[in-house]
Specification:
alpha+beta, 4-stranded antiparallel β-sheet, 5 helices, about 45% helix
């Protein structure tokens, strides 16, 4: 994503619900890491989403959702701030795509009469096989 506006248009969320903060990233990188704030924290206010999507968002494993309804996405893999911004936007889009997907409604089914009879017949044969293995005492 090039800009915040393009991302918001693509994902259909208001621009005002997003904010970025830049922090220093830890880990390897030498002096570069100590001088630049290349890690990105993307905050997304989920109140613009409808209730069902917001509820499903709580169950998404990768979603770090606060009690006040703010989703946090952190990206710090790249040395470049621009690449980390793009990575954060992509992760947010992935999490929102998962949350927007409605779960399939389970249709309860009943086993057929024939399948029940087959199961009972298999159980009876298995029991007879074990009965033939027993040692008969006189």
């Amino acid at each position: 994503m090039d800009t915040k506006k393009e991302f918001c248009d693509l994902v259909a969320i208001p621009e005002t619900s997003l904010s970025l903060r830049f922090v220093r990233a830890g880990g390897p990188g030498g002096q570069h890491v100590n001088k630049t704030s290349s890690a990105v924290r993307l905050f997304f206010n989920t109140h613009c989403l409808d209730g069902a999507v917001r509820k499903r968002l709580q169950r998404v494993p990768k979603a770090k959702l606060s009690k006040n309804g703010t989703l946090l996405v952190v990206a710090r893999e790249h040395r470049s701030q621009r690449q980390n911004i793009d990575e954060a936007y992509q992760r947010l889009a992935d999490v929102l795509a998962v949350a927007r997907r409605k779960p399939k409604v389970r249709v309860p089914t009943m086993p057929t009469k024939a399948s029940q009879e087959r199961r009972l017949l298999r159980k009876k044969r298995h029991g007879q096989k074990k009965a033939h293995r027993r040692v008969l005492e006189d």
